[in-house]
Amino acid sequence: MPVPWNGLRLPVSRIFDIEKRAITIRQLRDMRSFLIGLCKTGLLKHTMEDGIMKDKKSQEIDWFEINLYDVTDEVIKKVIQHVDPHGARDSDYPTMKWYSWTEFVANGEQLAKLMISHWWGGRFFDFMNCIETLSADSRLSTSTPVWICTFACNQFGEDLGDSIKECPFIKVINLVDVTVLVVDRLAGSLKRTWCGLELYHTTDQEKELRVYTASGIVGGSTGRVSSGPLVEAVKWWDIRATEASEAAQRRQILNYIVHPDNEKVGVLKDEAGREILHPDNQALDDVEMRINKQNEYQHEAKLFKTHAKCFETLNMMVRLQVMAKIGLTNRSHGCSLPFPHERGIRLGQLRSLLRKAETTYARWRHTGDQCRYGPYPKDWADVCLIQLDYGYIKPQTKTAGKDGKGCSYMELVSDGPQIPQIAISESWTMKVCEFSNAIEWFADANHLLDSTTFVWDMTAMNQHEDGPKEAFTLASLLKKDGRNIYSAWAECESLLVVCTDQEQDMHKLWLLVDFELSARFGLSVYLSCPQGVLAATCPFPGGGWKVGSFDRSIAEVFQSMTYEKCCINKTDPVKRQKLMDFFASLNAECIPRLFSRLRQWTAGPIMRAAARSNKPELIHVQMVASHGLELTYDSNKGGNGETPLHLAASHGSLEVIDELLRFRACPNVQDSTRQTPLHYAVLAGQSEAVCKLLAAGANPHAESCFLETPLEVGDQNPASFLGVYTDKVVVILKEAIETPRFKPELEAHA
Hints:
Blueprint: E1 23-24, H1 25-40, H2 68-83, H3 101-105, E2 114-117, H4 124-138, E3 145-147, H5 149-152, H6 168-175, E4 178-182, H7 193-204, E5 208-213, E6 216-217, H8 229-235, H9 247-258, H10 298-306, H11 308-326, E7 345-346, H12 347-359, H13 361-367, H14 385-397, H15 409-413, E8 422-425, H16 432-445, E9 453-455, H17 457-460, H18 474-477, E10 494-498, H19 503-506, H20 509-521, E11 524-529, E12 532-535, E13 546-548, H21 552-559, H22 563-568, H23 573-584, H24 590-613, H25 616-625, H26 644-651, H27 654-662, H28 677-683, H29 687-695, H30 710-716, H31 727-737, H32 744-749
Parallel strand pairs: 2-3, 2-4, 4-5, 8-9, 8-10, 10-11
Antiparallel strand pairs: 1-3, 5-6, 7-9, 11-12, 12-13
């Protein structure tokens, strides 16, 4: 794994103008590769004592969760101080010992072509997806510099100037033609006042504004992103609702937006007249409490009231830029469709449903029909799907339809047939927020368009019909033009199972029916949860089998699932008997094969967790209980192609290594970057693991996609800044390479 800096090229090339410290696409990709290597081997951990990271101290940082705060605190600062412990004081920077990341990796000034506005708390994985999509859309070369404050600013202390006019953000926007706003999953960038300043100056200078999410550009010719919670957040953005780390920073920016000459009103000045942008002076000139405890300071409240038109104009300018790219959406007139296989709901419509239900929850929670789960919770975060159905969907569709007797939700919001592509299986007792997050992970992993169509029983079935139902038999369920929801599955390509770690939600006969029929219809199966998604039968478009974090506890729920447990779970007795009769009508081998299949699909997360914690007994249980499971299966790999043996090697889990090798794990198996377990063990300095792997036949000459052998990784020692030392493993490798076992071909050639 190559380090993303130029070896021992010291001292660095100091770049005095911050706006000239852009970072190139190649340098960003190098940083990504470096971070992936540290995260997938478990070497990068939380070390911060303060704030929200305090309860995560010593925990491994997952590649799919790392954000730019983590990158700054755990990598940038530590690497620079480790590689250049003495630093260098410069006559122009007498108080600064170190420098920015761009200065560390660049050979000189790098003038920005684009300005990237973002929030540090967003996932770096999503951020880089935006950069890659932007690069492809704009056909940027790898040498194209883009300005990103995390890498441009000196994280050991940077003088940003005495006023907003002098701050680098303004200078960069003046320099470039395009500002790119990256909207993260939590829409954090839309809640930050500094990002608001960047949006204000971009529109004020009539520069082009592009908005990107992890799925791609908002609007544009591709039409990939035109809906969803992030887009809705952009459409309703309000500079007045943003926050900054320091209240005084926010006040100065809001003052500046009203009039540049007024930015220092209400901001504490030091004796030299320097205000908020100086790092040692971030305070207000009053101690006023916020009005209504949390809403606003009196100064800002008066500012918003006196200059309401100014702020509304800014809000509207940003919204119009977004809406112009998306275009107006036509209001649906509804339709009447007799069969569920015509009632797919588009991803954009599904997102809109969940957004509308959330924004109107305060109203319908008091008026919606009460379901058997009792009163609706106070907070939207606690609402479950069945409460969404009774409180929002059923009242919406109760008197709709051609005859006024009710219809499905899909018929209410669509103009005609929408043939489904993906079937959704879920428990109606799970929380709506968890369901929504799982859908978004699946959409991101598969790069879905807004027009991708799902069939979901809650939106596809007319829940007001009380006519006769078809018999619950295999023939009726496989009937393409039937009245049951499964008739729509014949049109689908995939099944998405939304999972939780609650046995009462997952151990259900209905779920077993879904799995069995997905096999009958030949559907690809994916398991999604609020933290990530797992490909069970077919890989994602990028070739991986896991995106995000698929919780081990969810995998254990599947592992413990039995037919008997599903039969005794709370289900209407009549329905339960029908389901049991259905399974009784199948071939006797169907149920054992079904559970064997489930155990194979979910064995990977458990075995990878066992490898990290050196629990060989879990490996043994999985290999014995999951009939037909092979360690070579791609579905056992993690998000970066790492197998349990890779992780056991990097964590020094010697007993797990022995157990995996006993079950014929390949010591030369490769991850997504063609690194072997030996690469992992060397990177982590695990000498005993290196010895075991070499004894098992690991190839010390194997090259990764970076054209590095394990010995070259050891010589470079990329994780030395984390206290990892590879001197011992280098000696072991050199001795091994010199033995006849690894030199027969060379000797024969000589």
